[in-house]
Amino acid sequence: MELQKKSSELIPQSQQNWQNRPEWFFNREHTDTYEQWYEGRYKRAEVWQKKVMEQLVSKDIRIKTLLEFGCGTTRFTRWWHQIGIEATGGDISPLMLSQAVHLFKGDLVMADSHHMPFKDHTFDSLAFITTFEYYKDPVKVIREAARVAKYGIAMGMMNRNSPKVLRRRVQQMFGKNPFYVTATFYSPAKLTEIIHQALAGREYTIEWTCTGLPKWFPVQQWGLPYGDFFGLYIKLNDVD
Predict the structure, then answer these.
(1) 153, 190, 12: which is closest to 70 by C-alpha?
(2) Which of 3.40.640.10, 3.40.50.150, 3.40.390.10, 3.40.109.10 would CATH assign to domain 17-236?
(3) How confident is the model at residue 171 (pLDDT cuts 50, 70, 90)?
């Protein structure tokens, strides 16, 4: 009898898709080195990203609990705990979560952000950190976030108004940067338009700030819509 050889891959190559397209976070070639990437050349950027996100979220004193969707290996999810917010992580990638369970002591869930498996107002806030760029239906995701989170939605993402966007696209042409092939880059203004569409009829305020500026630049954070990264916070005002 001839034995059939089975693949040792956690996710077979034919199934490394989401939203009908291949995604880097379903490929171990990329997910296995995710944490090292943050500890290397991306470390300085991470420090500033956390600074702006803390500034935005800490202004809303109602926030005690938070769900981070697209948590990956829980790089930011662990950090929310460090600044006094009880965080839970959610992600669609079993490869990312297989690392997260060893790095994070809190709760984790594997789910699609378009269909969050939580009751209304389960958390005080919901966060998307460098993950919202990958959603094919951003309006639906924001509406889901506003359903699950009672008081606010925190969003941190790569800024479309950055010369690095062009560099990434050129790299992709030569097959050297697979991480943003399916990403949609937003500016603060474009994201605000989508938020208005998603939250029509709700009462809310939006605040944003940019960072990711060159090291030699005299400031590292400002209120102009330019820089490699921007943080945005939606404060929901029509809840008790």
Answers:
(1) 153
(2) 3.40.50.150
(3) low
